[in-house]
Amino acid sequence: MKILRLLIWFLFIGTINAQQNAAAVIRLFQQNNAVEWQLPVKGKSIPLMWYERHNSLAQEGFRTFVAYDQGAFAGSISVAPSTISGEVWHEGKAYFLSTEKGILKISTEKSQFSCGTCADGHCNTDMGTTTTPKTSTTARGVALAEVALPSEDERVLYNTNVMRTYRLAMLIDYSFYKGHCRSDMNKVKAFMTEVQAGLNEVCGREIGCQFELVNDPRLIITTKEKEVYDFPVVRTVVERATGDFNTLIGEENYDAGIVFSVYKDNRGLAHLGEITGKLKGGCIANHEFYIILHEFGHLLGSAHTFTIGGQTASSFTEPDRGNSIMSYINDPYGTYFSLPSIYTIRNRTNLHDAYYSDKARTQLVGLPQANIPYGEVSDNRAPVIHRAKLKKSYTLPPNTYFQFDIEASDPDGDPLLYMAHQADFKIFGKARFPSNRPTESNRIEFYQPYRKNRSNEWEAVPFKFTKPTETGEFTFWLGVCDGKVGAYKNGKPHVPLYDVYETKVNIVGGTPFRIINVSKSSAGKYKRGKDVTLTWGVDKNIFGEDSKVRILFSDDYGKSYKYVLADGIPNNGKATVIFPTQAKGWKGSALFVEGLFKIEVLNHIAYAVSRDTPGTLDMHSPDITFKNLPEPTITVKKNAIPAAPNVTAESYCKRGRINIVLSEEPHDTYLLRQWVATNGCGDKATAQQFIYYEKEAPINSLHFVGDLPKDMHVQCKGEIPEKATVKAEGADNIRIDYEEEMTEGDKKAYKLTRSWIAYADNALPIRHTQQILLRDTQKPELSSYPKSMIVKSEDQVPFKENLTATDNCDGVLPIVSSESSKYDDKGKKKEVTYVWFVEDNAHNENRYIQVITINPAITTPTVSTPTVSTPTVTTPTVSTPTVSTPTVSSPTVSTPTVSSPTVSTPTVSSPTVSSPTVSTPTVSTPTVSSPTVSTPTVSTPTVSTPTVSTPTVSTPTVSTPTVSTPTETNPEVSEVIIYNGVSTHNSHNYFKVENTDENRPIYVIIFDEMGLKVYENPDYGNPEVFRGYANVKNVIGKKALAGTYFYILRYYKNNTLEEKKGFLYVR
User: Fold this and answer.
1) What are the boundaries of the region Disordered (predicted)?
2) What are phi and psi of 868, to 5 degrees?
3) What CATH number did the domain enclosing 451 receive?
4) Is residue 940 pLDDT above 90, yes or no?
5) Measured between alpha carbons, how far is 193 from 209 in angstroms, rounded to an integer?
6) Domain that holds residue 809
7) What's the CA gap between 325 and 320, in Å, rounded?
8) What is the mean pLDDT of residues 774-799?
9) Domains of the chain: total
10) pTM above 0.85, yes or no
11) How far apart are CA 826 and CA 803, in angstroms?
12) pLDDT higher for 193 or 1007?
């Protein structure tokens, strides 16, 4: 790979050099696929590495590159034959590149864009102000109850070996085309490829999915007459978007959609997790990439992670505004997902794991589901954390810094990224520690950072660490990922795989572990090679009597610790060490050192530093200066220790010569060498070298023995096998950790993930994972299926049979049945229809129809099989535990009409009923702006029974029937019926609940699609009912609601408390 370096410097701040054009930069990128180009910004340059990436419009002349700044993803650009455009971010600022008349232009924009979930007063959009949300614990807990988040103590971050590719449709509305793209089709396509490159870079490295652009001109609106949205509010757009995508290009021609328009309320919004559902086009953003990625994070399944959002769909795993992309920091540098976000996204993928193995999408792998992507199988193997030295919990005193050293290995030799993120899900106000970007360093530190205030004084950055006296238990996920190589490795798919270890940090009362004092050599200054005494606070009740510490020194203020001053000494609160003789001076001056002392507790996570803010140490000139000293700290094989060099020294003292004595002090893990020099004036100085031994490669190899549990699909919960006993061999003292999590998906489907991790000292760990899909796919069966027939007269019509239904999982189920009749012009009955309907708890339906036709012209009654097949009505994909805009539109079925989720006997308004035509219900993606769903009124005409004699098959003898005028009566209904169609204009259409126990309270709570509570009533119907208006304080402005909502209903039936969840629709 050829790398060409180009440095471009500008003479004037904020503007491009008048003689500089874009051609040289474009030519540089066109001739290379890896470029080092320093982005010129305000008189300085930002060194960036650029790598070419695939895009869907390459055949039209567009090439895309992604930028990296010291290993961190930093932007993407699109390069065409005569233009270059894109977005780059650095130190919290976004820089936008464009080409105007051949000149390269770089500008900055201050975004006022926000995520819609934080709207309505719940998120402060002023970045200069930090506020604490004022919301009740009860309200927060209820709002989160329906978000797909892990349980308190069982969670498994699932690894998939399939790289999924989604067809991405971008709707470029007229206002965006005219404004941001300046009515230039090339600018439109350049923008599309930039977004594609950015999404693929992050999602390929962290999630395991890619996006291919839908290149369809119908998605680019170039005239005002065809404008889809005329300066709308984003909520209106997100409710309509999927329907508009379906109208423009067809539902079957894309997998994910995002709308770019100009909005009244400048914010983003997206349906939660709907990339696996029917509302896949519900994503809104502006042109800034981190906003786009944030909203796609919602679409992929992640809630927010911040805390300041208050009552909103959030995991609350990051303090204040948070750090990661699913937080609310308005910082483009946060273009990464935290482990809690990856967990929720991967869980959704795990529950919706079907994919097509061919791009033509004909070969389905897995069970049918909504919105199935194309998938490529990866042979990548997951990294493994070495658990032997980690503990399930650590105890710390208050106000104590701590760090995690994560040792891991990858069986494929892939480079690894490390992270440690707080994972106290769903507990508002528990987040204390930032979820920082994954790093190549396997040491993750947590400490109190400081910053300069307006008075140029140092102050603690709020919401980055615990308060000085705070105690509590905090959950951390230690993670490692092999996604650094990207989505593809050597042309083959490379799905990022993770290993995660959960531990607890328990902060209790006691003496903080902090450095109290560092003594100076003399006259308030330090001297190289001289003794320095450190004192620190230590609580023996927490660390024990045998605790040991290591003391380090940094001469670049903590960026690196090249000097070991002591290792394995008692943690007793005091130690005398040698100031490093090789400590480098600040900016070349030997009289100042950016020095920092650090004390680490061995086999623990606690550490302390000598100061919290940057500064320098004042130094005396040394009495003795060493020459030819080796590196202060090295690591070698134990049998390859280098010989000691010939160290010499100089001194100001001219009395006699300098005497140097070398000593070696062996330890279990290192060798300490010391050179002690003395001069004729009585001065002494000491130099040290710590030679650490390389860790020997594990001599043991673990392997599981016996038959390992296999993945399986079971129909019923009772079929789930007991946890298998897994054994391993290959080393002594093998420990096996077991992880298990049951997650709920759509249509009462569950995924049980079981994982066994075996590990031992001096051996690499191994893992086995079993997936059990619990999904009932069998419909209930009726006791019989009466055949349709033709009879000669009405008195030959048989009675409706009293059928029963049995389900493979639920046993005997109640049946809803109905009867309807047709009459000719003379009022004589000509057809009778019987319908039986049953549904199990997994929403598998069985509807059967028997039609009896009365035809006096026939001579012999005939019995025929009905021409109507018994359809299984498949409920649309609905992820119940996730509070998002529902994916359900009521299935339309002709005679009878059944609306989901409450199925009841259909309405019969008159004795004349049209001929039943039953087909598989068509489930269409709704335009969610104003769905109308109402559960029909149940009534059945009752016809008096005629006197019928027993007919013979050949010539039936039938007495003349006396038919009374049909009357309508209501059948006895025992099940609870919910009317979920609500109108703010019709007082009769309210949220109605029938057939619950009388004189017992009904509790109703209603959320919008992002999990925000809009209505709550603990005594529903007494007398207040929900007529489409909010009754909670957090809904700002107009109280009338519109769209799709999620309800939780608790009621008593037969003296038993029951609960139902579902969707309701307001217009």
Assistant:
1) 864-969
2) -100, 125
3) 2.60.40.10
4) no
5) 16
6) 780-871+890-923+942-970
7) 14
8) 93
9) 6
10) no
11) 33
12) 193
